[in-house]
TrEMBL record, chains A, B, C:
Residue stretches in coiled coil: none
Ranges where the Cupin type-1 domain occurs: 106-265, 312-484
Signal peptide residues on this chain, from the entry's feature table: 1-26
Gene3D superfamilies per record: Jelly Rolls
SUPFAM superfamilies: RmlC-like cupins
Record key words, sorted: Signal
Matches recorded under PANTHER family: CUPINCIN, OS03G0336100 PROTEIN-RELATED
Name this protein carries in UniProt: Cupin type-1 domain-containing protein
Region (Disordered): 65-102, 385-410
Keyword Transport included in the entry's annotation: no
InterPro entries on file: Cupin_1, RmlC-like_jellyroll, RmlC_Cupin_sf, Seed_Storage-Functional
Amino acid sequence: MALKSKLLLVALLLSVLFLSVYVASATQDPELKQCRHQCEHQQGFDSKQREQCEQGCDKYIKQKREEEKHRRKSEGGGSFYPIPETGRAQEEEEEFQGRQQQDQNPYFFEDEHFETRVQTEEGRFQLLQKFTERSDLLRAIENYRIGFLVTKPHAFVAPCHFDADTVLFVFQGRPAVTIVRGEKRETHNLEHGDLFRIPAGTPVYMVNRDENEKLFIVNFMKPVSVPGEYEAFYAAGGENPESFFKAFSPQVLQAALKTEINKLERLFGQQRQGSITRASKEQIKKLSQQHGQGGSEGFWPFHGGQSSSDAFNLFSKHPSQANKFGRLFEADFNDFKQLQDLDLLVSFANITQGAMVGPYFNSRATKISFVLDGEGYFEMACPHVSSTGRQEPQPQPQPQQRRKSSPRYQKISGNLRRGAVFVAPAGHPMTAIASRNSNLQIICFEVNAHDNIRVPLVGKKNVVSQFDREAKQLAFNVPAREVDRIFNNQDDEFFFEGPNEQPEHGRAFA
Amino acid sequence: MALKSKLLLVALLLSVLFLSVYVASATQDPELKQCRHQCEHQQGFDSKQREQCEQGCDKYIKQKREEEKHRRKSEGGGSFYPIPETGRAQEEEEEFQGRQQQDQNPYFFEDEHFETRVQTEEGRFQLLQKFTERSDLLRAIENYRIGFLVTKPHAFVAPCHFDADTVLFVFQGRPAVTIVRGEKRETHNLEHGDLFRIPAGTPVYMVNRDENEKLFIVNFMKPVSVPGEYEAFYAAGGENPESFFKAFSPQVLQAALKTEINKLERLFGQQRQGSITRASKEQIKKLSQQHGQGGSEGFWPFHGGQSSSDAFNLFSKHPSQANKFGRLFEADFNDFKQLQDLDLLVSFANITQGAMVGPYFNSRATKISFVLDGEGYFEMACPHVSSTGRQEPQPQPQPQQRRKSSPRYQKISGNLRRGAVFVAPAGHPMTAIASRNSNLQIICFEVNAHDNIRVPLVGKKNVVSQFDREAKQLAFNVPAREVDRIFNNQDDEFFFEGPNEQPEHGRAFA
Amino acid sequence: MALKSKLLLVALLLSVLFLSVYVASATQDPELKQCRHQCEHQQGFDSKQREQCEQGCDKYIKQKREEEKHRRKSEGGGSFYPIPETGRAQEEEEEFQGRQQQDQNPYFFEDEHFETRVQTEEGRFQLLQKFTERSDLLRAIENYRIGFLVTKPHAFVAPCHFDADTVLFVFQGRPAVTIVRGEKRETHNLEHGDLFRIPAGTPVYMVNRDENEKLFIVNFMKPVSVPGEYEAFYAAGGENPESFFKAFSPQVLQAALKTEINKLERLFGQQRQGSITRASKEQIKKLSQQHGQGGSEGFWPFHGGQSSSDAFNLFSKHPSQANKFGRLFEADFNDFKQLQDLDLLVSFANITQGAMVGPYFNSRATKISFVLDGEGYFEMACPHVSSTGRQEPQPQPQPQQRRKSSPRYQKISGNLRRGAVFVAPAGHPMTAIASRNSNLQIICFEVNAHDNIRVPLVGKKNVVSQFDREAKQLAFNVPAREVDRIFNNQDDEFFFEGPNEQPEHGRAFA
């Protein structure tokens, strides 16, 4: 009896422990928990599917952590500035936070936020995660995606179509892009600075004509089939890329193509090299022969921004801002009418080393910036993040939002290097600063561009100087001339000389 | 003491058991769990409401299972093909899956996905569930609804208005539809093939003029008040349909209608037959007198597709595709300008018995197809469903999506018969095949129709044949002439001779 | 051993109790639970953040309850009618429900649904909660916000910009509103009845020119940066309002403004009075000098509805409806072209004491009404609320929605007084009744206004009278002349004599 009682006790103890662990473990890692929670609540999952889903979560978290660890190590030296600080309450918590903190900045994206959609010997395509996967604060741009394509010289990118409208910007390499519209095939030989639109559902393939230079293309995409989701559809292909023809029943395919199954098996079975392969010089020459545009079917030796109504070279226009501290090139729908229905403006900023752009804000547009080259950092003032000093997006119906006072602005910031992405929502004041070692080159996609105005906060045309004397005095509670003395000091415009020293931790004033 | 200890142990054991059961039971049925979860988290529910809500869940699940069981039994014989296979991993799992599998195809809808909104002796109106209730993958069409109305000859459908724009297609019967716009009443005598738009909030009633033929109307709706929700508002009526006047206070109603309450009680108390009743020949004759359109108030004996600018007959135009294997009739906003603000194209496909349409894909439009008559099946290639071989929509932030390779395409398929609905999102290659016994007639609503292009994947104008020689070779990794040999075999267009045999399980090639 | 066993038992007991309490407590208050649930599932929260979040929940719920208690007490006397009834099942449950019931009406908002965004000695700005925070049934207007500004005479509202398009309506006071667009500053002297649009991102400040009258302005806002969220950005300011300049690093700010940090500290450190302060007579005079509009730079002594193309006076137009029972003034985009891209119509209804408006419904528009003055109540028929007699929004995928019969309409109602807000979705019949003591004045924002029609349900042009004789008879199941006798009684239009008595509980007829 005493033994039984003890056994029972042990059993109970174990049960209770199990339950406690269950409750405790579920609170360990928020992302893991979130992931498992979704597995559990996914409608229609049976228990086996749920199990697989949960295993996927564990694996993903483990992998992510290893990647992060790896990244942190490999960063050790190169960055010219330590990571700038990101909030008010941090002074007290610095030692404990480090990288973690940075990861919680919902407006800033780095390598680990991209997934690799295609990877072969010859190149890769990386796609940034969905903006709303990161934070609900980015709902305004939830149906846009950003990605980039990098290939070796002479790489061929296999034919496919996308369920998204795509605008691409050529930063490096010389791609010959071929699209098929209706019964017409068009080839466009693009160069550095070209913008090109590929309408959703258009079969496209391309080759890097350059023998020496890598191809580097940035893609801005607006999905049309599943909002926020982006997929490629390969008609041609085999095992890798898989042709979508292979999803149909053999009987259906035989009838559709009027061909016996063994021939089809052969056709759709040879390609195993993936969707980015290597083309021969001869093939590149043939693939670069322009046809279809404006009726000219032959070889077209001359290239320029205006060579095709379907492409626009950002550098073919005078910069809209230019001084020794930087230059800004812009294309709106007046320049490139294919941007109109996307309500998009594309700009390219080249910030001289040691210089800065802004602070300014966009009145209506939300700007998605992709760093092409150089190093630096950005800062942005944001009233949406919580006043606890963390860059946490507030979930929508959070009671704390029912605040009773004026907004507090948190500093959002991040170190910029090639491949970093940052988002500046409408109304949010922001600035970007180039390192002292290299120019900072950024391509920006501004959505909701119609009627947008850039409002400068410092420099010759800053908005504060334009207030009435009385407004200055009442707003700052100092004599108006004191306001003017400060806001009239800076007489450059848009691009300015940057800070002498690296920024210290924290905000401007405690 | 020993006894007390034992009692305590028992109590503890029971507590632990209770907790374990609590945790275990919550994982039993995903849909039930989901439902109960919503009851629990519904803001503002008190405990009694939560209890009722949970009871509703249990009841609903029980009922759903019984309906399913019933359906499965009653299906036994009639289908001409066994259910086509739906995925790669299935070969191994066939014996266990059956119907369940089919139910998880988020692009395919059958009887059990409709709810009966109106049912009387004389007819019924059935409404398809919200697309996003089925799957998040259908978010692009979340604010559209599909339904159909069936009535006996000489049925009258009571006056009401809807909080949705409606486009109706008359497949059977000859309805006289009366709408009230401002101070104008218009009657439209519609026939087989007519499209007609009823703007949101427009009072409407109709009668089936035909003495012998049933009325069969398909409705496409775009809600304006609660996105994705669709309701009818009956001004006239009594107990059934209930008049919305009855929701107001008696005092308010008396003042508004300047009438004593007992008279109002009489007026709003007589109708108990429901919103679809039987009209006499005399009444039908009167109700069919056209007035209001183009100023003609009198009887209008002649009907045609062009009789009213508010209706358009799909068959009044030459088919846009026609051969011995099928015909396609289409109306876009150029034909019927009332489709413009809905960004809608309507098409009617009549696929000859034993023939097929496609494979093709829409570049931008998402197509919602409703089977009007005949039998057959459809197949579609989809990269969005999980690679486990199940047609499961992936929840948005699922880590597995962070895949590192080219997409895999799953086969989505379903048996078609009257009332089946299937959805082909933009970019997704699809085909539909008619049985050898009957023509397959389908009405299609294509949303996001502006600038959409149908891209043929086989036949005379197939897109693969248009690729450069070099692209063919590089993409398929076989000589280009081999590609051409296969893709030039089929020289029909859009409609083709179908497969000789029924499809076997699985995809084209393992 | 026995002792140890007992100790173990106690430990176990405590553990089990703890777990039971954990599970039980989580089900106590749905809002609290929801709040804590969000804390728990917030991606990226570490355990400390989660803890803070949860403490915030507790605090908020406690505070909310106290506020409610306080409100209920202070209401005791003044209301002229007891709260009208809101549903069918209520007769049985009255004694228990009271205020709670009212709170669950998702179309009706009172004081407690506003948050105070700014509060100083001189005035305050109150913002209504997000519509979808209240109910999913309001998704159609989820990206609109309503608020109001009240200040003392001679108050100055500090310069800021918003991440939302704003339309303001001046009900009391005489504000001089200054906006900065590009390099142009414009001052607009507005008066009672003026509508004015402030584009998103436009720096604006204002002063109440009136020496005696309070300023009372109603704001309609459409956010552009985070859908449904609304924030102010103060460039000028100090501690309160905080200037967003203070979020940047000192180094960055020094470089941007070319000014030493100690001078900046002084400039951004003086303002502590908040964003609504008091201006002197002299300052007001200066701030009211109009410039910038149409080139006139000087003082502009004459004011009228047409004084500026950027403002429109609602009362400058003839009322679109007017009789002894009330008057309706309207502005659509033809009157005020700045309403066009917002798809907005603004109307002002002045319902004579003891009179009523409607019942009518909007065909497409959803109307958001804000009570400016007077008392009364509204009633609306709604098919979307649950048939349990509670004004509970049904969560989207609730199985109970799969109903099998015609809709039942619930009465939605609420007592109106200054600051009450009610929403009438498209298609929903509604009426509003003024008390016998005062005129009821309401400003209405109708979104989705394009092609909207108001459909009158009673009075001279009521829609029922326009049905065919046969339709009346078939629909009501009584002779058509009986229908006419009742629906032709009321020969006024839109505004009518109100009910003699206050409404009793319940619907028109049981």
